Amino acid sequence: MVMASLLKLMLVFCIAGLIPTIQADMSELDEYWSQRADEAREFTLQAYHSDPYEIIDHFHERHYE
């Protein structure tokens, strides 16, 4: 009997936790995360160097000379 009431209580908490998720405005969040992804992609492309030897030379100049 105690176990059944605990399961019912757990079910109520699960449903109560799902309600805000169901009612969330996902289109607003999608815009935000799409914008963040675009910014991250741009930052990554700016930081990318295609010549690995140039990167190593820069590192050695800075730390060993």
TrEMBL record:
Q: Which family does it belong to?
A: Belongs to the polysaccharide lyase 1 family.
User: Which positions fall inside the Pectate lyase N-terminal domain?
Assistant: 27-65
Per its UniProt record, what InterPro entries does this chain match?
Answer: Pec_lyase_N (IPR007524)
Q: Is Signal included in the keywords of this UniProt record?
A: yes
Q: Which domain of life is it from?
A: Eukaryota
Instruction: From the Swiss-Prot or TrEMBL record, give the protein name.
Output: Pectate lyase N-terminal domain-containing protein
Which molecular function GO terms apply here? pectate lyase activity
The alphabetized UniProt keywords are: Signal
Membrane-crossing ranges are none
Renumbered to this chain, the signal peptide range is 1-24
On whether Signal is a keyword of this UniProt record, the answer is yes
